[in-house]
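Predict the holo structure. Ligand: adenosine-5'-triphosphate.
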Amino acid sequence: MRAYVIGNVTIDETIIVDSLPASGASILGEVGAHDLGGKGTNQAVVMARCGLPTTLVAPVGNDARAAVIRQRLQDEPLTTELVELDGKSSDTSIIFRLPDGENAIVTTTESAQNLSSSAVAAKLSAAQPGDLAILQGNLSHQATREILRQARGLQMVTAFNPSPLRPYFADLWALVDIVFLNQGEAAALTGATGNAAASHLLERGLRDVVLTLGREGAILANQRETIAVPAHPAIVVDTTGAGDTFMSVALASSARRNCRLDRLAIEHAVRAAAITVSRRGTQSAFPTSPELEALLALP
Ligand code: ATP
């Protein structure tokens, strides 16, 4: 089985500042990290580090940043299918980090918003029935809907993470098999939390619903059962990327065992997410391939 993650890629530039610039001000800062980011890329990197054959389909511009993105992706055990968009800028995040560790982030989405479903269709031509199609909330409404439809047409299993939150997500449920969402997303999209949110989504035809509950762990619900798994204990340093780690490891755990999401997949996911929250950063905080290999071998 192969996972196709269709989503965004960004270059994340961190600048360390004493305070945020006020309107009209010009301030000095220090260069911090220069990282690869974007939810699509985060999820693809973790899935690939789990040893699952993974293809990342992501849009870039034809600019200098695209070359950096290509170069950085070569360090990961991924197949990369970048769609180069003529005249567009590659997406980037500028992260202002304050001395107390708080962040203020500005992200551009020109590439993500201009990825077309026809460009993605060409990249999915080798997909087999049963392969995973994994999407998040950064692409345009129309492209997200069409790509989910194409994936269904290819008899792929569709998994969706409705983040960053957009109002149109509730239109997509009929095209989604598996959803992963946190408590805020569940409340916004279903008007409910916990088991009531899961029931709302199952009634709309989803096969598996996974609600992540931060330090409370997670719930997996389907037509047969509801399984609650507590979070794995962690000394929390930075929770950024916890949700991406969790989703990718849960999907990879079940895909590697050729089964549907189950308790073991969620147990693997909470352990992996506990590693991510115990380290600073996003991709630099993700578990490594050897860590994931050891974790996924746990019974
Ligand atoms: P983020 O946006 O920060 O990436 P999220 O909001 O999508 O995360 P959460 O529900 O906050 O998702 O966290 C995902 C998973 O990470 C949780 O289900 C849990 O397993 C783990 N996790 C999050 N916070 C903690 C914590 N304080 N201690 C241990 N595990 C945690």
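DSSP finds ten helices and 13 strands in the chain. The chain has one domain: 3-19+30-296.
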